[in-house]
TrEMBL record:
Protein name: Nitrogenase iron-molybdenum cofactor biosynthesis protein NifN
Keyword Oxidoreductase in record: yes
A Pfam entry, by short name: Oxidored_nitro
Domain Nitrogenase/oxidoreductase component: 19-430
GO terms for MF: nitrogenase activity
Family: Belongs to the NifD/NifK/NifE/NifN family.
One GO term of the biological process aspect: protein-containing complex assembly
Function according to Swiss-Prot or TrEMBL: This protein may play a role in the biosynthesis of the prosthetic group of nitrogenase (FeMo cofactor).
Functional pathway: Cofactor biosynthesis; Fe-Mo cofactor biosynthesis
UniProt xrefs under InterPro entries: ChlB/BchB/BchZ (IPR050152), Nase/OxRdtase_comp1 (IPR000510), Nase_comp1_CS (IPR000318), Nase_Mo-Fe_CF (IPR005975)
Sorted UniProt keywords: Nitrogen fixation, Oxidoreductase
Length: 456
C-alpha cells in the first residue's frame, strides 16, 4: 500500500492536470449534433479550444458566453441567454452542454434559475436539450469534469425505469475520459460480437475519430443520440470504466434499477478476461474463438515483452484512473514504479498503486522525483517533453493532451489487442534505448588485454 502525499505549494509549475470545464466539453462532444458552451470569459474557452484542437487535429465546435468585466460584476445571465439564442438560430444544435468556469463560479450565480427564466422567455427552446454542469477550474481536473458532465446528462435525459421495458440485448457503457476513440470502437465491436447492442455515453468514437463528413457541420459529427440516452433504462446491464465513472453509474442505477459492473480499467490480461466473461454471462453465449486466439497472442506478447520490461524503472504522471491503470500494467510486466504523480487525490485506488509514495502535484514534482530516483522511462502527456529533454530519458506519451504526435484518437489500449499493442510500443521504446556493446567500448582496455599471455 502506497502513501498519498498532497503537495501544498502555493503555485503550480508546469501543471499536470487539465481543467474540469475541458473534461466536461469532451464529454459533451460525445453527443450527436451537440455544442459545448463555456459560461465564462473568451480566454477560458480559447485555451481549452487550442488544447483540444492540437490533441485531436480536428475541428472542435466549442463556444463561449464571452463574459466581460461588467457582466462579471453585474451577472452573466444576459450573456448566457444571448449565447443560447445565437447558437439556436445560427447552428441549430440538438444538444447544448453548458459548463461553468471559475469566473462565474466564484461569483456564485444561480444557473438553474437562470436557465428556467431563459426557457420561460423563449418558448422555442422547449424542445431543445440544454444541460448545465458545474465545473469550476479551481477544483478537480479532467476526470472530474467528464464525470460531472455525464452525470448531468443522465439526470436530465434518462427516463426512469418505471416507464421502461427491458431489452436483454441492450447494455449501457460509460467509458472513462482516458478511453480513446479507438478504445471505444473496439469495445463496441467486442460487445456486438456477443449479440448485444451497446448504448455508449458519451461516444467520441464517431465524433472525434478523425473523419471528413460529406457536408460541413457546425455541431459534432456523430456521437450518442439523445433518443438512446433517454431509453438507457431499457438495458439489462451497465458497464462503467474507471473510478471517476462511479458517480454517473450510481445515478443511472438509482434511476433505472439496472445492475452495474465497474471496471477500474480494461487494459491487461485479467481485466480483459473479466470483461469477456461478463459479456458471455449477460448474453448467454459462449466466447467467440477469435478472443481465445487474441488472448493467446497477448500471453505470447507478454512473454516476449517481459525481457524488456523486467527490472526497468518508470515514472508516471497522470490523472488518477489512468495512473492506476498504467501503474498496474507496468508492475505486472515486471517494471518498478519509481515515481508516481497524480493530478488530484480524487480516487481511493491511489493507495493501491505498487509504489512507496504517490504525490499529488505537478510536473515539477514529477521531474524532481526523477532526479532523486533515476528511471528508464517517463510516462505522461506532451507537457512532459521538456523534462524528457533535460533529463535525457525517453518519454512515452499518454493521456491528454498529446499535441506533438498524430493519430491519438486511434491509439488502442483496451482489451487483448489493445494491451498487446501497448506492450509492443513500450518494449520497442525500451529496446531503442538499450545500449549495445561496440568495439569502441573496449578500446581503453585493449592494450592491457594484448599484454596478457595467451596461456598461463
Amino acid at each position: 500500500m502506497s502513501i498519498v502525499v498532497e503537495n501544498k505549494k502555493p503555485e503550480s509549475i508546469n501543471p499536470l492536470k487539465v481543467s474540469q470545464p475541458l473534461g466536461a466539453a469532451l464529454a459533451f462532444l460525445g453527443i450527436d449534433k451537440a455544442i459545448p458552451l463555456f459560461h465564462g470569459s473568451q480566454g477560458c474557452t480559447s485555451f481549452a479550444l487550442v488544447l483540444a484542437v492540437r490533441h485531436f487535429k480536428e475541428t472542435i465546435p466549442l463556444q463561449t458566453t464571452a463574459m466581460n468585466e461588467v457582466s462579471t460584476i453585474l451577472g452573466g445571465h444576459n450573456h448566457l441567454e444571448e449565447a443560447i439564442l445565437n447558437l439556436t438560430a445560427r447552428v441549430d444544435p440538438r444538444f447544448i452542454g453548458i459548463a461553468s468556469t471559475a469566473l462565474v463560479e466564484t461569483r456564485g450565480e444561480d444557473y438553474v434559475g437562470a436557465l428556467k427564466e431563459i426557457r420561460a422567455k423563449n418558448p422555442d427552446l422547449a424542445n431543445r436539450q440544454i444541460t448545465f454542469v458545474s465545473t469550476p477550474d479551481y477544483n478537480g481536473a479532467l476526470e472530474d469534469g467528464w464525470s460531472n458532465a455525464v452525470t448531468a446528462i443522465i439526470d436530465d435525459v434518462v427516463i426512469p425505469w418505471s416507464t421502461a421495458v427491458t431489452s436483454f440485448q441492450q447494455i449501457n457503457v460509460l467509458p472513462g475520459v482516458h478511453q480513446t476513440a479507438a478504445d471505444i470502437e473496439a469495445l463496441r465491436d467486442i460487445i456486438e460480437s456477443f449479440g448485444l447492442y451497446p448504448v455508449i455515453l458519451p461516444d467520441i468514437s464517431s465524433s472525434l475519430d478523425g473523419h471528413i463528413p460529406e457536408n460541413w457541420m457546425t455541431t459534432t459529427m456523430g456521437g450518442t443520440r439523445l433518443e438512446e440516452v433517454a431509453h438507457m433504462a431499457r438495458s439489462a446491464h451497465t458497464i462503467a470504466i474507471g473510478e471517476h465513472m462511479r458517480k454517473p453509474a450510481d445515478l443511472l442505477e438509482s434511476l433505472t434499477g439496472i445492475p452495474t459492473s465497474l471496471f477500474p480499467d480494461i487494459t491487461g490480461l485479467s481485466a480483459s478476461d473479466r470483461l469477456i466473461a461478463l459479456l458471455s454471462r449477460i448474453s448467454g453465449k459462449s466466447i467467440p474463438q477469435r478472443y481465445r486466439r487474441q488472448r493467446s497472442q497477448l500471453v505470447d506478447a507478454m512473454l516476449d515483452g517481459h525481457f524488456y520490461f523486467g527490472g526497468k524503472k518508470v515514472a508516471i504522471a497522470a490523472d488518477p484512473d489512468l495512473l492506476v491503470s498504467l501503474s498496474h500494467f507496468f508492475h505486472n510486466m515486471g517494471a518498478k514504479i519509481e515515481v508516481a504523480v497524480s493530478s488530484t487525490s480524487h480516487s481511493p485506488h491511489l493507495k493501491d498503486i505498487p509504489t512507496e509514495k504517490v504525490i499529488v502535484g505537478d510536473l515539477m514534482d514529477f521531474e524532481d522525483g526523477v532526479r532523486d530516483h533515476p528511471v528508464d522511462m517517463l510516462v505522461t502527456h506532451s507537457h512532459g517533453r521538456q523534462a524528457s529533454e533535460r533529463l535525457g530519458i525517453p518519454l512515452f506519451r499518454v493521456g491528454f493532451p498529446i499535441f506533438d504526435r498524430i493519430g491519438n484518437a486511434h491509439s488502442l489500449t483496451l482489451g487483448y489487442q489493445g494491451t498487446q499493442n501497448l506492450i509492443f510500443r513500450i518494449a520497442n521504446l525500451f529496446l531503442e534505448k538499450t545500449h549495445h556493446p561496440k568495439p569502441a567500448d573496449f578500446a581503453d582496455n585493449s592494450a592491457d588485454i594484448l599484454k596478457e599471455p595467451l596461456y598461463a
